[in-house]
Amino acid sequence: MDYEVVIGLEVHAELSTNSKIFCSCINEFGGDPNTHCCPGCSGMPGVLPVMNKSVIEYAIKAGLAMNCTISKFTRMDRKNYFYPDLPGAYQISQHKYPICRNGYIEIDVNGKKKPIRIHHIHMEEDAGKLIHSDYGTGTLVDYNRAGTPLIEIVTEPDMRSAEEARAFLEKLKAILQFIDVSDCKMQEGSLRADVNLSVRPKGQEEFGVRTEMKNLNSFKAIVRAIEYEAKRQIEEIESGGVVYRETRRWDDNKGISYAMRDKEQAEDYRYFPEPDLPPIIIDSEWIERIRSSLPELPDARKERYVREFSLPEYDANILTSSKVLSDFFEKAVQHSNNAKAVSNWIMGDLLRILKEREMEAEEIPFPAEHLASLISLIDKGIISGSIAKKVFVKMFDTGKDPETIVKEEGLQVVADENAIRKIVLEVMENNPGSVADYKGGKTKALGFLVGQVMKATKGKADPKLVNKLLIEELSK
Amino acid sequence: MELYELTIKQLSDMLKKKQISAVEVTRSVLDRIDKLEPALGCYITIVAEKALQDAENVQKDIDNGTLRSPLAGIPMAVKDNICTEGIPTTCASKMLSNFKPPYNATVIRKLYDNGAILLGKLNMDEFAMGSSTETSYFKKTRNPWNVERVPGGSSGGSAAAVASGEAIYSLASDTGGSLRQPASFCGVVGLKPTYGSVSRYGLIACASSFDQIGPITKDVTDCALVLNAITGRDEKDSTSANIEHPDYTKFLINDVKGLKIGIASEFIGDLLDKEVQKAFIDAVDVLKKLGAECEEISLPSLKNALPVYCILAFAEASSNLGRYDGVKYGYRAKEYKDLEDMYRRTRSEGFGPEVKRRILLGTYALSAEQYDKYYKKALQVRRMICDEFNDAFKKYDIILYPTTPDTAFKFGTMTKEPMQMYKHDILTMPANIAGLPAITVPCGFDSNNLPVGLQMLSKPFGEGKLLQAAYTFEQNTEFRNSRPCLS
Ligand SMILES: [Zn+2]
């Protein structure tokens, strides 16, 4: 039987506000344990939460960027549970009246566009972290992260494959980065996703029983976990078994997920309205002010790239998948009149090197202007394309600008006719067979001879000139 | 007269005229504490040395003219659920017996700014849960009028200390009557301000949407003086009201002519002890004679006050008390197998039975299956009670009924009957449910010479009207001049 996989995502994104959600502590990743906290975010008795207005603004921004309706009335609720990383034994979250509802994000998988609906976005606080001590047997708690503002983006079960889930997350990440509300660093946990997954026979309306998977720390892990879980559920059903509604933990090292203990799931969180914070009333004026301040979003940028720079949609899509990459592209284009070449360099060598070196776009060691200069060196005929590729690698290695590299290493094109003619004659002398071949009508031999001249000049000769001189000498 | 017997107003006038010094007043009260504390047990912590040092410093500021507040140099004490930096704040619980907050509550900061001299922290029911101060982990507090009787609760220490001269005034908190009931039992004045009038920052929460800090004083004038110092918007408490508070002493006017007073008929009759009822009717007569227009009104939804209170207040408390888990501060069980066992043992050993009872009831009311049946319904009824009060206050300035159905009871009578105990607060709960200001003033004695309290409620931020009515009543009766006989 053919099965269809049904996926919904719950994504937590840490907001990059200056201070935490309910106190004035700095909101910053890292720091020595328990140095970014105060009586408020460490759960001391008598201390009250005060809502950080920026958190509301950031959430509204995110909602608008994801085509949501912004609630005019929203409030915080308490989610009660015991865990040592949760200092108050309740998390201030939103349950009944989330700040944003009914939105969507459009994804593009292999050229097929599809909207993924957002059920709602709500605001909440993050918990601290447990540190399992290297000394002795104890577990320690670090409250630096406690009170970090989060938004949770909950989708409808609209995705049908791991690729779609991945495309959604990449698009979501790009949007959050474009509107500058989250840095979305999965490795630092500022973007985390839980996957709700079920399978059903193709054509069946009714959803199957879904499981929820946690502890997914990279896009790669999410894709693997989805593939694993879909296969597991199908095999379970095929062999006459039952899929239970449960929470499963993904183990990325082993490449398997396993059901969490009963105690870790199906908790009753005893939600109720947070009595220490008044409801939040959002008027249309506030919403419109934020709407008008929104920057250009990835989709709009993509369309502009296609329109203005005549880039292929595929390329425009990749360039706008990351704010850093897209900003890099724009900056380089500003300093170069060759947008097509900038795009090709980014899509080709740049992304390849990043991948090879396992680097993020944020880590490109030179400014976009340097790429523009490199392109201009080629366009002006100062270096050849093949030399440019070498210079580009050097730019990555040293961070130096291309002119300096070309100068220091003497890489400029040799356009001195006499010098090149001398080498052409030498090559002809050393390759009498090829010369004879050419003269005998085998014009292909010319290519070989050009290659030999380029080799002798270490690629620095102007290939057009080499061609011209070779033909001249061969015709004598 | 000894200095400890005087009011804030009297002492402040004498301090201004340099007839006495802050140190002398403080010494007088500390001596009184030394003498009576073994019998009464008002305090959990006494900071005598700090008080004398503070008094010396404050006196300098009074002398050089930088401190002009009427509270400057006046020794006082606060309920032990109000955080005081570096001074134990225990909530009268084993759970917090070793807890020293690294911060001051906003009310403490304000009182310090006014030159108040803090004497110590006052006994209470554990986490403000109780009506007799008997649930305190540390000790019993005895009623100064009769040491065989309870002082009321949960702010028993706060009321008994003021009544006995162990403090010139005190701060207490009121969640369902925790301030007014003991003030009534001990024959002193107690005001629960409008919800949002006084910052809750630093008040260890019992039930967040009910809790409010207020003063317990010897008379209505002192009440207005303390209220002036502690009210106001606080950025650290988002539920504190952003309003301009008037100078409350402006309302100390001996006149109730034309004041419209509604008498809640639901609360007269079978519910009340006969002697309390008589004192109440006499009090109404006094006000009538002074020109107030009194008539009976009906507030039918008040009969639901008890279940509404028990569901909502216990639910909030069950959540607020989750943080006492042995992880960060406070008591932790000595031995445990794992995390869950640590939670279980810590909370089983650290909390007393009344606290546990309320956590269990509150947890049940919030559980997913019961939420609609209890919590949600109680919220709706709370709205109805608010609406009913709103309507009544369109017509009346003040609503009147006794503070308690009974006078101070003997030790041990309520602890075994929790429902009886909760019922006992039926007259004080409505003001907390609707967030209204309410004052209690002495209005007589029963045949055992135990004080009876008269309670007045007003619309939100109607403290001025309350003070005026209470002041007029006080000025035209003799009850404020009676003090308990303590050898
Ligand atoms: Zn903090």
Q: Your description of this structure?
A:
The complex is a heterodimer of chains A (476) and B (487). Chain A has 476 residues and is an alpha+beta fold. Chain A has helices at 53-65, 162-178, 219-238, 284-293, 298-309, 313-319, 323-334, 339-356, 368-379, 385-398, 402-409, 417-430, 432-439, 445-456, 463-475; strands spanning 3-14, 69-70, 73-74, 77-80, 90-93, 100-109, 112-125, 129-132, 139-142, 149-155, 191-201, 211-216, 247-251, 256-259, 272-273, 280-281. An eleven-stranded mixed sheet of chain B has the order 1-3-2-4-6-5-10-11-9-7-8, sandwiched between helices. Chain B is built from 15 helices and eleven strands. The model of chain B has no long low-confidence stretch (mean pLDDT 96). Classes of the chains: A alpha+beta (476), B alpha/beta (487). The interface between A and B is large, with 29 and 44 residues. Bound molecules: zinc ion (ZN). Zinc ion binds next to loops of chain A.
Features:
heterodimer; A: 476 residues; alpha+beta; Arc Repressor Mutant, subunit A; elongated; B: 487 residues; alpha/beta; Amidase signature (AS) enzymes; 11-stranded mixed beta sheet; 15 helices; 38% helix; globular; binds zinc ion
Strand portion of chain B: 5-15%
Low-pLDDT windows of residues of chain A: none
Strand elements of chain A, count: 16
* Order of adjacent strands in the largest pleated sheet of chain B: 1-3-2-4-6-5-10-11-9-7-8
Radius of gyration of chain A using CA atoms only: 29 Å
N- to C-terminal distance of chain B: 15 Å
CATH fold title of the domain at 3-253 and 438-481 in chain B? Amidase signature (AS) enzymes
Measured as a percent range, the helix fraction of chain B is 25-40%
Low-pLDDT runs of 5+ residues of chain B are none
Strand content of chain A: 15-25%
**Count of discrete domains of chain A:** 3
Bound molecules: zinc ion
Q: Count the helices of chain A. How many?
A: 15
Helices and strands of chain B, in order, run as HHEHEHEHEHEEHEHEHHHHEHHEEH
- Give the N-terminus to C-terminus distance of chain A in angstroms: 75 Å
pLDDT averaged residue by residue of chain A: 92
The beta-strand count of chain B equals 11
